[in-house]
Design a protein that fits this description.
The protein folds into three domains: about 5-85, SRP54, nucleotide-binding domain (Four Helix Bundle (Hemerythrin (Met), subunit A)), CATH 1.20.120; about 100-275, Rossmann fold; about 315-450, Signal recognition particle, SRP54 subunit, M-domain (434 Repressor (Amino-terminal Domain)). Helix content is about 55%, strand content about 10%. The chain has helices at about 5-20, 25-40, 45-60, 70-85, 110-125, 140-155, 165-170, 175, 195-210, 225-235, 250-260, 285-290, 295-305, 310-320, 325-340, 340-350, 360-375, 380-385, 390, 395-405, 410-425, 440-450, and strands at about 100-105, 130-135, 155-160, 180-185, 210-220, 240-245, 265-270, 280. α11 links the parallel β6 (about 240-245) and β7 (about 265-270). The longest helix is centred in the last third of the chain and has 20 residues, at about 410-425.
């Protein structure tokens, strides 16, 4: 997302760092490049010009005591862009001891139904007893789509494919909803915020009394997000925004800055099509990622969204019993794939964002993970539980390769990786018995790195 802006920001900060003298010409060049990139990201021209003028004025002020001019300009650039994006992170105040209802609204095509499932999955992974209810009675496929997403995410879903009154649907399931501490409500959209949609949202608000009403906006509408956010705020009392399709448009900068301008806090952003490609919006982390400095907080959030705590507990028990098999490895591979593409993960690791990793290399690794998944699915239960027998019988290797559409070399690579992981869990001073909540000690980490660092290859 915003690749052009990211590239210009990195170059601007590097230019400042390398400059022997920060004269007026250097400052003007940096500001001009930044203005051009922001406009290409669909940020309002007046906002961009105002920002440029403020940077020039503050950069030419007397040097702040105790800070070099380079550091001063770097901080000015960072702070001004941060202000454009909304300054601070906004979080929904959700507690497990109290039932919270979140109602999503928006126009056609914004991705409300998918976002309903993403939001429900996000909180379900964090231990909330979550349910979804479909009140979109205008789009015929909406109830069925939500039902399918509910099955995919294993989240209880309440729909009625025949009823056309959303309030009747809500009242039908009102008692059952009391068993959940978080309710995500999908509502109908329209082509425009017309009188009919306004009245429907108001009547639902009166009946349901949601704790939060969040507007779902797609990033590709750019600056038009300002008008949409303002209108929904005035007529429907919307108190926050979720921006979807952040990964597929250069206009995302326009949508983000437009929401900040209207003081409509952005709580979440959708960064891809997968359910787990969804994260809280933190302006500071967002800028850090654009600058190639990584985003550890966002990375940990992705891990938490992709990993099922119950599955991890079962895996820990199996490790303790020495029963780690290929099915467990497959489960871990699926968790990795659930975090999104390797290129997106690489962006979030401090230091890697600035490293030019060949795109074909990351693609090769992702293809390898997919191949391994197909290989395991082509094995018998006996082979999954006792992979050692595969290498001893070439007929098994040939059968699995044919069934999975891979080669015997691919299978041997998988088995080699499996052996390494199994050896790691058994031979690192009983890794399973370590107190993982406290993290590994430096000594333990060095021991693991020394023993397995050179061998591990994905």
């Amino acid at each position: 997302m915003l690749n052009k802006l990211s590239s210009v920001l990195k170059k601007s900060f590097d230019k400042i760092a390398r400059a022997v003298f920060l004269d007026k010409k250097t400052i003007d060049t940096v500001v001009k490049d930044l203005e051009r990139a922001l406009i290409q990201a669909d940020v309002n021209v007046h906002l961009v010009k105002k920002l440029g003028a403020e940077i020039k004025k503050q950069a030419q002020d007397k040097k702040v005591k105790g800070i070099e001019k380079k550091e001063h300009l770097t901080k000015i650039l960072h702070d001004k862009i941060l202000n454009l994006l909304g300054k601070e992170k906004h979080e929904l105040k959700i507690k497990k001891h109290k039932q919270i209802k979140i109602m999503l609204a928006g126009l056609y095509g914004a991705g409300k139904t998918t976002t309903t499932a993403k939001l429900a999955s996000y909180y379900s992974k964090r231990g909330f007893k979550t349910a979804m209810i479909g009140l979109d009675t205008h789009r015929p496929a909406a109830p069925e789509q939500l039902e399918q997403l509910g099955k995919q995410t294993k989240i209880q879903t309440f729909i009625d494919k025949n009823e056309k009154d959303p309030i009747k649907i809500y009242n039908k399931y009102k008692e059952k909803l009391k068993d959940f501490n978080l309710i995500i409500i999908d509502t109908a959209g329209r082509h425009d915020l017309d009188k009919q949609l306004t009245e429907e949202i108001k009547s639902l608000n009166k009946e349901i009394k949601p704790d939060y009403k969040l507007l779902v906006i797609q990033a590709d509408i750019g600056q038009a997000a300002k008008k949409q956010a303002s209108e929904f705020q005035k007529t429907c009392g919307i108190n926050g925004v979720i921006i979807t399709r952040m990964d597929s448009t250069a206009k995302a900068g326009g949508a983000l800055t437009a929401c900040a301008e209207t003081q409509a806090p952005v709580y979440f952003i959708g960064t891809g099509e997968k359910i787990n490609e969804f994260e809280t919006f933190n302006p500071k982390s967002f800028i850090s990622r654009l600058l190639g400095l990584g985003d550890l907080e966002g990375l940990l959030e992705k891990v938490e969204s992709a990993v099922d705590k119950k599955d991890q507990k079962k895996l820990k028990e199996k490790l303790e019993q020495g029963k780690f098999n290929l099915r467990d490895l497959q489960s871990q591979l699926k968790s990795m794939q659930g975090m999104g593409s390797l290129s997106k993960i690489a962006e979030m690791i401090p230091g890697l964002g600035k490293v030019k990793i060949p795109e074909n290399l990351l693609g090769t690794q992702e293809n390898k993970l997919k191949k391994w998944n197909h290989i395991i699915n082509s094995m018998t239960e006996e082979e999954i539980n006792n992979p050692e027998i595969i290498e001893k019988q070439t007929s098994r290797l040939s059968r699995i390769a044919k069934g999975s559409g891979t080669t015997t070399t691919d299978i041997r690579q998988l088995l080699k990786q499996y052996k390494m992981l199994k050896e790691m869990t058994q031979g690192a001073g009983d890794l399973s018995s370590m107190d993982m909540s406290q993290g590994l000690s430096q000594k333990q980490m060095m021991k693991l790195a020394k023993k397995f660092g050179k061998k591990m290859r994905i």
